[in-house]
Design a protein that fits this description.
about 200 residues; alpha/beta; 4-stranded parallel beta sheet; two-stranded antiparallel sheet; 8 strands; globular
């Protein structure tokens, strides 16, 4: 009845999973990508990916950087990149991240207003998303997939400290993603939404 299947490619009938082919469209069971999955995703779509830096210098203006990010996303899509990655991985002592919810919403709304949102996916690499609510908000404002790399790094750190007993690392990652997926399904069910594609970008808050 419900599905979190996430599609990459030309957006057609959101329910027609039977006729999808690897030539033009790809499907994942969940919008949450582990660090390993994120690396494979980047490697697989390497020629069609544009990574946009969502950080800015402490001395710069947030609004100006946000406007620049929106422009960069438009240029990338018009140049033919089919997958955008909004990343805050370059955060440092001198650079801070644009709040990822703000960045995602800005890029999504810009592409929608230009009528080109359907030509690309918006994928997120962020240290901010940890709980189900954060993922739901990012998806609700237009994210296609989310890689909460800091959450997985934290799980790795705790695993190395042997805080998960006899559970292996892969199972720890699987349980985290499963718990987030279950939370997303619960949120969607309360709204009467069956498929993630109907929730994505709807701003149902």
């Amino acid at each position: 009845v419900m599905s979190l299947k996430t599609r990459f490619g030309n957006l057609g009938n959101i329910l027609d999973f039977e006729n999808l082919t690897e030539e033009n469209i790809y499907v994942l069971e969940s919008p949450i990508l582990s660090n390993a999955q994120s690396e494979k995703f980047i490697d697989f779509f390497r020629k069609n990916i544009k990574i946009l830096d969502c950080t800015f210098d402490l001395k710069d203006n947030l609004k100006q950087r946000l406007d620049q990010l929106r422009f960069e996303s438009e240029v990338a899509v018009r140049e033919g990149f089919k997958h955008l990655i909004l990343s805050d991985k370059k955060i440092s002592e001198k650079k801070i991240s644009i709040p990822m919810i703000l960045a995602t919403g800005a890029v999504n709304s810009k592409l929608v207003s230009l009528g080109i949102r359907g030509f690309t996916s918006i994928n997120i690499q962020t240290a901010e998303a940890l709980d189900t609510h954060s993922f739901a908000v990012l998806l609700g404002i237009g994210a296609t997939s989310i890689n909460p790399y800091l959450a997985f790094d934290s799980i790795r750190q705790r695993y190395e400290k042997k805080l998960f007993g006899n559970t292996n690392f892969e199972e720890c990652i699987h349980r985290y993603i499963k718990s987030v997926d279950n939370g997303l399904l619960k949120i969607m069910s309360k709204m009467g939404i069956s498929v993630l594609s109907a929730y994505r970008g709807g701003c149902n808050f």
